[in-house]
Amino acid sequence: MGYSDYYSSYPSYYDYYDYGYSASDSSIATIGGTILGAFLGVFVFIGLIVTVIQLAGMWKVFSKAGEKGWKCIIPIYNLVILFRISGLSPWIIFGYLATFIPFVGWIVCLGINIYQCNSLAKAFGKDVGYTVGLLFLPTIFYLILGFGKAEYIGKGNVSTTSTYQGDGIVNISEKPQDEPPINNDEDNANL
Questions:
Q1: Range of 75's domain?
Q2: 81-90, pLDDT tens digit by residue?
Q3: Which residue has the higher pLDDT, 145 or 1?
Q4: How far apart are CA 93 and CA 82, in angstroms?
Q5: Confidence of residue 161 (pLDDT cuts 50, 70, 90)
Q6: How many domains does the chain have?
Q7: Among 5, 54, 70, 121, which one is most buried in terms of CB atoms within 10 A?
Q8: Rounded CA separation 152/120 (Å)
């Protein structure tokens, strides 16, 4: 009688500890994993479609405001440009660093988002309804602002005209919309 014959007559370690797994349990896990993977795949696909649609709307909003549309694609830079279009200081973006503060950071970021959406709606001559829309349905309302009849009027209902030279703004002249243009013919005649 050899070594292997002697130990083969004893029960295995796994014979004492049966965990109750069977072939049917592993097939259920495989089916569950497949369903979960398919669900996540569809979720990611729908998320990509919504992102592309929102980027198209933002591209058009940026173009209407006199910015180059491609600037909406670059992650942090698009917020800087969006704040500038809204008539806000781009330095407000640093308020998003407050997210590291528990609870208070969430409130600060929500406040910044509401303030930015309200300013963007006003920059396009829209009211509070657009602010709510930009908060809760940004994809749809960026499309409406970008592809609709909304005109960019700038910060505080002031018409802005700008002269571009290269990639930067060289000259911005602001003229309130309510006042007629000033006639300087008399001043020029005295020269």
A1: 23-151
A2: 999 999 999 8
A3: 145
A4: 10
A5: very low
A6: 1
A7: 121
A8: 9
DSSP 8-state secondary structure symbol assigned to residue 182: P
Q: Tell me if 167 is assigned to some domain.
A: no
- Structural domain includes residue 182: no
168 is a domain residue: no
| Interatomic CA distance for residues 142 and 148, integer angstroms | 9
pLDDT at 96: 86
Specify the pTM: 0.64
